[in-house]
Amino acid sequence: MIHHSITTLSPGGGMQTYIKSLLKYRSANMSDQVIFSLKEVDQSQFELLHVHDQEQLSAVRGECPVVFTLHNHSTYCPSGTKYLEMSQSYCDRKMSTIGCTWGHIVDGCGSRKPQKIFQSLQNSNRELRLIRRLKIPVIAISHYSRQQLIRHGLPPEQVTLLHHGIEIPPITSSPLTIETHQAQRILFVGRIVPYKGLDWLLRALTQGESSIQLDVAGEGWDRPRVEQLAKQLGVSDRITWHGWCNPEKLDQLYQQCFVVVFPSLWPEPAGLVTLEAYARYRPVIASKLGGIPEYVRSGETGILVEANDSKQLADAITELARNYSKSKKMGEQGYKWFLEKFTIDAHTKSLRDIYEKVIHHFQLQKAFQK
């Protein structure tokens, strides 16, 4: 029996979307179970363990095959974001005690408290050493994440690339209509924190079509400041703040927009917002950072722009706002690509291939040891 090991599901974000899709599919098609802690489990009874939380790796005892999916940057980035708040740019330095301490204190990439800096560095280095020692296969959700792991010492053969997938929405989606396009609504989905780039999007609103209306689906500790910024920029009357949205409400917002804007300032490991948009025939305008370009075909399923370039972002929004045919075609191409590569069904088939290889390799090792 193949089990997934998951300790927590965050209240929002791409990891939760993926995990829910994966478990819903697998519970309907396979005899899997979810376990929340490996410490007191007889691991020898499992055909394979798939770990999704790196904190569980310390409990792996080598009694059965194990595969680990890395969903974030924390194994090679103490702050977990690779984002420099002071300069509003991404961090490209390799993890090191001196460099990351400088990053925390001077660049604002994480807490400036010495104890937290030390603890986060310690945690990241421990995870990296543990993965090296265990020699278990690691699944990276983008080429970007895979290269970061290799850059930090993992052998290329230990890291497998497998892009995320999500379930097809239960609603009936349809291509963009002229009426929806004429309503001129765009959508932002995500946490309201500095590195998600909502500031950048608000500034772009001041430089583009005045008819554009923005729906913001998400919550976050930075919302009061961002709302104040919207007032200062004079765009408050063009923004609707929806807060946290349940799936039904979120689906409604996807359906009423003509494009989804994904303006992250940090190098997202993947970015499932793109897939959620494609699943509803909507094109995506996104920043050219991290794993995002692997989920957006610029000029085909959306438009990629340089991070924090308000003029370029405004121009991209205007381009699609003025061209219904282009917006519709990009949405249709995104939907087709989604069905070909990013459904949870296609993803799970690739996952099964990985499982079979890992189990076979484990059995060979056991046989050789005997």
Alpha-carbon distance between the two ends: 24 Å
By helix and strand content, what is the structural category?
Answer: alpha/beta
| CATH domain class name of the largest domain | Alpha Beta
Strand order of the largest sheet: 2-1-3-4-7-8
CATH architecture of the largest domain: 3-Layer(aba) Sandwich
Weakly predicted, low-confidence segments: 7-11
Per DSSP, the total helix count is 12
The ordered string of helix (H) and strand (E) elements is EHEEEEEHHEHEHEHEHEHEHEEHHH
Helix content: 40-55%
Shape: globular
Rg, alpha carbons: 21 Å
Number of domains: 2
Q: What is the assigned CATH homologous superfamily of the largest domain?
A: Glycogen Phosphorylase B
Biggest sheet character: 6 strands, parallel
Describe the protein in words.
The longest helix has 26 residues, at 344-369. The strands form three sheets. The protein has a six-stranded parallel sheet. α6 (198-205) packs parallel to α7 and α6 crosses α10. By secondary structure, the protein is α/β, with parallel strands linked by helices. Residues 7-11 have low confidence and may be disordered. It has helices at 14-29, 97-107, 114-134, 143-151, 178-182, 198-205, 223-233, 247-256, 273-278, 310-321, 324-342, 344-369; strands at 2-5, 33-35, 48-51, 66-70, 83-84, 89-90, 138-140, 159-161, 185-189, 213-217, 239-243, 259-262, 284-287, 302-305. It has twelve helices and 14 strands. It folds into two domains: 2-166 and 343-369, Rossmann fold (3-Layer(aba) Sandwich); 178-342, Glycogen Phosphorylase B (Rossmann fold).
